[in-house]
Structure formats: C-alpha cells, structure tokens
Specification:
Blueprint lengths: L1 E10 L9 E9 L3 E6 L5 H9 L6 E6 L2 E2 L10 E4 L11 H11 L5 H11 L15 H12 L6 E5 L7 H9 L7 E6 L10 E6 L2 E6 L1 H11 L7 H9 L2
Helix pairs in contact: 2-3, 2-4
C-alpha cells in the first residue's frame, strides 16, 4: 500500500524568483525505507514541511493514504516527523517535550508513557534539562522518544545523520520504526541512505534519478549533478583570482 506519494510537485516561495522544486515525484509504501538525496539548501526541508502542512505546494499533488493531503486532517494522521532542527520546545525540559504532545492528544497515562520513553532512550539523567542545553545526540534522542509512544504509519527523518555517526543515528531511528511502517530518509549524502531500498536523487530542483544506494552514488559521481555548489572548487577559484 502506498502511504505517501508526490506527483509532479513544484514549490516556489513568494520572495524567490525561481522555483526551489520542480515537478518532484516519488512514493513510499508500507514496510519500505526510501531515501531522498539532495544538496544542502536544495529543498529537502521544504518537502518535509509540505507533508507536515507547514507550507503548500505551488503545483502538483501530494497524496497520503491515496487521498489528497490538502483534504487530510494531519492531527488525526499517523505521521511522525523528525525535523532537521528537531522542533523541540527549547525552554522546556526533556520530559516535558516528550509528554506534552501526548497530553495534547489526550492520551491516558501520558506521564507514565513519557517516562517509559525517557528510559528507552537512556535520558533519565537529563530528563529535567531544558532542550536548548542538549547536545545534538540528546536532541535527536528526545525527538525520537517523543514519537515512540505512537503507532505511526509514516516516519520522516530530515538529515538526522548530519552531526552524528550514521550507525548511531540509524540505531536510534530503528527503535521507533514499527512493522509495516513507511519510512522516508532525507540527506545530503547517499552514504547516509545505505539501508534504503531505493534512493531518489534531486538535482537542480527536480527528480533526476531513482535506484538503489550504489546506483544513486554512481549516478551522482558520473553526472556530476551535485557539482554546481562545489565549495572546495569555489575556494580554489578564489585563491587563483
């Protein structure tokens, strides 16, 4: 069963002259892990925000459970997202960041459930520490623990490996992935997506390739589609200026 599908989705922000994303298409079905690789500041987080309902596509359609996402009540959908900035309440403690969403959803015994999540991610010693004081790893664990008490059909992880060893990040994310869940990973590096069945490559704002991780890596290297923003090359050019 297809859980999430982007069909010719484009995104242009009012303050930009060009489209950030152009006719993006991909899908994620139940029980599979899919990756999207794109350069930094190339629209990955905008894809996530469109699923979350924080921004709307300019053109194209997004389908959730086969239904136009514009018609879905996202608060009632079993979708869990770990944003690139974790979207934690910075002035609140770890335990409050985990328990508050459960309280809002009127989950019975939400404090007990939150405490179990704290223990499952070994956060007991910092349970009362405010989120703004946490390390990157502890912020990731808190964001994951916050989702762990829910039955989720779709999980989206936005660049969670960028400041932590990939194996450690994947070990944490795997703790909350339930059987038959659809999983979407987004990253700037194919090496972060080795566990994915297939990887969609987005370059110059559009979907240019889909294959397994090795094929995606080979395509990027052969096509040089990510060389547009080659920082090392730009630095060399500056030296010779």
């Amino acid at each position: 069963m297809c859980i999430l599908k982007f069909e010719g989705v484009s995104k242009k922000y009012p303050y930009e002259k060009e489209f950030l994303l152009k006719e993006i298409s991909f899908e994620v079905s139940a029980g599979e892990k899919v990756g999207i690789v794109a350069e930094k500041q190339s629209g990955k987080s905008s894809i996530v925000k469109m699923v979350a309902g924080l921004t709307k596509p300019t053109d194209g359609k997004i389908f959730l459970y086969g239904k136009d996402i514009a018609e879905c009540d996202m608060s009632a959908c079993n979708v869990g997202i770990v944003f690139d900035d974790f979207a934690l309440m910075k002035g609140k403690s770890v335990i409050k960041n985990i328990s508050y969403p459960l309280k809002v959803r009127k989950v019975e015994n939400y404090l007990q459930i939150a405490q179990t999540a704290v223990e499952n991610f070994n956060l007991e010693k910092i349970a009362d520490v405010k989120a703004k004081k946490l390390s990157y790893e502890d912020k990731l664990k808190t964001a994951l623990a916050r989702l762990s008490a829910r039955k989720l059909d779709l999980l989206i992880f936005d660049d969670v490996c960028r400041n932590i060893d990939r194996q450690i990040a994947i070990e944490y994310t795997d703790r909350i992935i339930q059987k038959d869940a659809a999983v979407l990973y987004l990253s700037a590096k194919v090496s972060d997506l080795q566990d994915c069945a297939r990887v969609y490559v987005i370059a110059n704002g559009t979907t240019v390739f889909c294959g397994n991780p090795a094929e995606a890596e080979n395509y990027i290297n052969m096509s040089k589609c990510f060389d547009k923003f080659d920082v090392n090359a730009d630095m060399e050019n500056l030296k010779n200026f």
